[in-house]
Structures
1.
Amino acid sequence: MNHPADPAADPAAESAGSAEPAESGGNPAGTAHAGLVIAVDGPAGSGKSTAARGVARALSLRYLDTGSTYRALTWWLLARGADVSDPATVAADAGRPVIEVGTDPDEPAVRVDGRDVAAAIRTRQVSNAVSAVASVPEVRSHLIAMQRRIIADTLAAGAGIVAEGRDIGTVVAPDAPVKVYLTASEAVRARRRTAELSADSSATVALTQAEQARRDRTDAPQMAMADDAVEIDTSGLGLDDVIGEIVSLAESRTAGAWTR
Ligand code: DC
């Protein structure tokens, strides 16, 4: 893995910790549902990323993967050889890298200090370290502020957005008019994650399920279903069914104000 530039030697690091949309320009069609925020929460492997991107495409909305902000910071810490199990080290460095996350559902860019890390943040190494990083309060306050800024900028630009994560409906965007909480059985979630890691031959379903159970335990304090969220068990559903349910919910929750 390449090491990111030393922020101290990087002029861009003067704005360390700021979030900039990684794509310029907007989705012209995104203006069709100006102001709409759809919160999609759920555990790893619940199908939320694929579903959230599908909903964003279906309704011409922008898309924010908040997990990628935690993964980007984790990648940066690992690349520097930091001890991610030490909350004090992680807290001290939380604001140092310049993390940029794009909102294009077709190609959500992720950059750290200008480097494209969209693929690098999906490795098992990052997946196994990210929960510890995401549980540090200073990390959460820093990245949640960044996520809220991206959502606010999107709305200010006249678009709507689907934001996915663990705490969107409860913490990041508690006023979102549409909230879903996706679940799936542990076995289904592990199978989906293993398929995503197909390039890594060491990722068996059993190993993935064990690692997932460990992550679930560390992620638990961050995960909550909002009182006004609708729970969808995706275990036996096809992707189109899940997208269709969320689009229908958006239509009913917003009384057609934003949708076709
Ligand atoms: O969804 P994901 O697997 O890419 O998320 C990566 C990690 O980030 C996961 O361990 C939980 C954490 N996370 C979080 O704490 N809050 C969010 N809103 C999104 C992700």
2.
Amino acid sequence: MYSTDLRTDKEKKSADQQILDDAELWDTFQARIDNGDTIEAKDAMPEKYRQTLTRQISQHAHSEIIGQLPEGNWVTRAPTLKRKLILLAKIQDEAGHGLYLYSAAETLGRSRDDMVADLLSGKAKYSTIFNYPTPTWADIGTIGWLVDGAAIVNQIPLCRCSYGPYARAMVRVCKEESFHQRQGYEIVTTLARGSAEQKAMAQDSLNRFWWPSLMMFGPSDSASTHSSQNMKWNIKRHSNDELRQRFIDATIPQAEFLGLTIPDPDLKWNEERGSYDHGDIDWDEFWAVIKDGGICGKDRIQARRAAAKDGVWVRAAAEAYAAKQSAKEQVA
Ligand code: 3HC
């Protein structure tokens, strides 16, 4: 419906010509990156840079949008009015993150309608974490603590990503994610200090979400297809395994403080590395969730398709209003 591709048709055409991927453009572009320059929407860029960013930012946007669904499951059942209001505000923030990110991706030339169509057709990827169910209230706490916590570790470096519109969007996203993480940890703290039954609920949720949270950082470095080039382009600043390790090291003391146990018998402090060694991640599960959608994938896409259908009249009304306003402005 709306587009934020800032280039004129002429500029798009000339960019297309520069896509010839000539060595000179790559060298000049790499020199700008190495110099720490920020790349803006109208700048010449290799087509591969444009494509990988469009891919990553649109997947990120879809994750924010789909990520509302597991939490939406608890809006009507939050234990208090205050909890319900906080949860609603958080879900609304995620919708806002999706909006900034679709807008940032549109500056690279792809329309939001196209990106959403890929999500609804099941073609586009989004984070595997959101295909896990949230059967208990403790899951809302664990999502804030672990999922938003992992998102922060992964996304703070993206505030320094070489592509300006994405980096700027991430600054605000990270500030909000930080609030989300703290509200989640506060819910888990309340449960961990509550009755034995509540503490058991928190532990059970940690048991279910720990490994999927580690998978949020992507496959191990040896299996990551995009990392090496995207690090050269300063899109990524750290590898998947580096950020995963950073998250593990930060989270273990938080679990210990609550008296909860991380479900990994192989976790062990490694004095030499100054980091925790951890057990093997089940990559077969990760790839299976990407491929088949895991437990909730079909429901998630179905819910977004229904929302798109139910929202047709809202989009039509917004378009009609925008046309009316613009006609009025032209007359004035
Ligand atoms: N779920 C689904 N797919 C994943 C994935 C995951 N957790 N991790 C990696 N993949 C996919 C990649 O998209 C890629 O697929 P493609 O080639 O078909 O596009 C493939 O697996 C190989 O992975 P790579 O390591 O080569 O991919 P990247 O270099 O892009 O790294 C990433 C993956 C670390 C997720 C990176 O894209 C990234 O940092 N993205 C931005 C952050 C993001 O999207 N986070 C998702 C969660 S959003 C969120 O948490 C919302 C918050 O409110 C909680």
